[in-house]
Amino acid sequence: MTALDFQALAPHLTLTGGLMVVLLAVSFWRGHRTAFALTLLSFVAAFVALWPGLDAGPREVTPLLMLDAYAAFFNGLFILIGAVTALLARRYLEGRAGSPEEFYLLLLMATLGAMTLASAQHFAALLLGLEILSISLYAMVAYPEEDHPPLEAALKYLVLSGVGSTIMLFGMALIYHSTGALGFAEFAASVATGDRADLWLVAGQVLFIIGIAFKLSLIPFHMWTPDVYQGAPAPVTGYLATVSKAAVFAVLLRFALDAQLLEFSSMAQLSIGLVLAIIAVLSMVIGNVLALLQDSIKRLLAYSSIAHVGYLMIALLVLNALPDGTMAVETTLVFLAGYLAMTLSAFAVVSELSSAAAGERDSIGEYAGLFWRRPVLAAVLTAALLSLAGIPLTAGFIAKFYLFAAGVEGALWGLLWALILGSALSIYYYLKIVFAMTVRGTDVPAVPTSAAGVATAAVLGLVVLALGIYPAPLIDWAGDIAQGLQRLP
Amino acid sequence: MQLLGLVLLLLGGGALAAASERLHRNAPRWLALGVIAVAGLYLLTIPIGTEEQAAWIPRFGINLILAMDGLSFAMVALTLFLGLIAIVSSWSEIDESPGFFQFNLLWTLAGVVGVFTALDLFLFFVFWEVMLVPMYFLIAIWGHEARAYAAMKFFLFTQISGLLMLFAILTLVYLHYDTSGVITFAYVDLLGAELDPSYAFLLMLGFFVAFVVKLPGVPFHTWLPDAHTQAPTAGSVILAGILLKTGAYGLLRFVVPLFPEAALDFRWPAMFLGAASVIYGGYLAFSQSDFKRLVAYSSISHMGFVLLGVFAWNTVAVQGAVVQMVAHGFSTAALFMMAGALQQRLHTREMGQMGGLWLKAPRMGAVALFFVVASLGMPGLGNFVGEFMVLIGAFQVDVPLTIAAAIGIIVAAVYALSLMQRSFQGEPNAAVETMADFGFRELSVMILMMAALVWLGIYPETLLNLSAPVVSGLGVDP
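^ Those are the sequences you sent over. The predicted structure of the assembly is below.
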């Protein structure tokens, strides 16, 4: 490894360093405030280190990692979300966890795993990143030791996510068996010269995709999602819904690009595309239908996240019609930036309204009259929900607009009709919450909130609006990254 | 950037009004009134023919293109005028959160002004959707007993039809991109798009459905009676007076010019829907016992003439549709104000609990009579001019449908007069002992609207001259 390699790895290394510092600090000098401050500092330092990392240029560090602008985009988002989660967790954990310090270690570790995924270009790195992320998340879900639901959620998550990983690992083994390759690009090269219709290869790819679908909670591999979302502490649910989804999708898209997953030269390859399309349509439609039936806001957001990942599959499937990948990458980046901002703002409000004494504010009834009690938080939640519903001037509209543009350009008419149907259904349940917040004369007891938490939520809400009102910088940036990744046809 | 300034003035005014609630309970009202007045004066300084452009999202060729021709000017002027009326009419009705109320009112108006002036399809769509959200809040927060249902239905109908329109807009843009190699959402560029007829027809339907839901035309009308009845008075005034016109405006501005051949092919079904709306709306209006609901159904009937006029495809009929849009704005807004005033005084909208009110409140009775006869198409008032021109134009195209629509005018006389009889005339209702008559505030806005309708009835040239260049530019005459 050269100095330039280390420079390219700067964000990862900084975060690892921060992790060590926090570990040592909480071992010798326990204190919630110290652990929190050091964590925040680590995130800030890692964020700053993104620039020297970018200056090292797109760089392959060992065959495992590719540190380019695409990875940096995601790394930046993950670091920011990690910092927001720390801000939200601080008040949340007080009084609920006996020793909250180790939570921050797990948070830093999970973020490191997600960053590894965003830069993985090899099955080994993929598995490594995924497991670092998942194992940290199991513990984070179970963290508030005094409650029963988190424990149940963690166990469910552990078992089902473990199954997903196993299936994926088996798929990787079959792929290795038939191609002898573990790097994404070598895999493509070996497939190009060999037999694409090899049964082991197709089976391996299908198993790999099923494993990924587990992690992305696409229907029919979604069963764990609502329970885990509901049982997990609200700040962790927010992290789970954003970082773990985006990181897995980031690596899936890189794999599809490098390995030419969706270039159909044979019936077997075509069937992979068909499976993905069916999974996408099912997620869009069934995810939204099930969300209609929910009274728990966290379960509702769980189904809505299933539907949103279903929408995002359009960006992946567009690779078939537009194989140079620019549209797919651009759409993914813009969509995910919007999705992360709006989902995180919704969970920020849920988390801020929860308290150790009153527990989680989970049922929609408890949001009645929020406009008149907590206007700022209600406004943020309204912005987030309208954005999830895809109303203009919010990030969610730009995200959906991009999907429409990509779908129309790639002529994916069936998927677009599913998108329209799903969005139409979704308006009902998002508005149901907005309406509940406008009801007057309710006697839901007020909870104490922290200025930092409310400010975090407000900033997130403003980001949702800013991305919707003036998306040009984000779009240009995403366009540049997509050009950089462009593969010669 | 004058037109953008107008929109921003309303948006900024709304934000200020919301904030001013902390100073004094009445501050938002006065502030909103002031903002509308300033906006009205500002509008007069903007010359017709103004066009302005600024970059927004270059990646997709999306620009902030706003322009104002005669039709846009007439519609924006109507919007601001009825906005003023809405604020005055809700002066004493809204006690809870007056700041947020005026905020929503002004933001709705800003969205509508944007819809009437945007000449970039993306921008148009943004305004189209943005006017919904504050309107939703107006109904959901300050509405009557069944507001949850009504607000949700209103939002779902317009939003879902809006998604179809977005789909159609994007497909149009990409079809244009395929032939020209330029990606753009600018209306003027897309006018020249060469479309395959079968695609053009589907795209036209996407736009048509979105606009006819808003208009509303049968069979997409079912949201209207609920939304109009449940909304607070100011909300009903804006819904009926302005929001319905955005649908009609969309037909004139987008459906006809963008897809002339496809729209002409669709002429008979569209005219049929128009005539059906006239008769069916009138029939349903007659069977209502709720004052406000009756007026709501009468809107469906009146807007049916607009649909008929636009698709009759000749200058007389289209001009008639424009007059009908404006005249209906005044007459229906006034009747909704009347309904609101009655509800505030009697705490009911049921006509069974009214009767003989003229004795208690003669000024209200006289005003109601004026607008009822305006609504049934009395010659000399604006509505007559509009309906008559539409019928003349439609007669040259399709005699049976014109006869059917003309019968609708008789139906209008039946429901309008029965409205008058059941509420203000007949046996005085014993339960109503006293009722306050119109005061200066209410009477003055009513007189303003009466004057507007009389002017429109006697000298419609003022409006016709404004819209004539636009209508002749449509190229609808054979």
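The two ends of chain A are 31 Å apart (CA to CA). Residues 339 and 412 of chain A are 22 Å apart (CA to CA).

Shout if you want it in another format.
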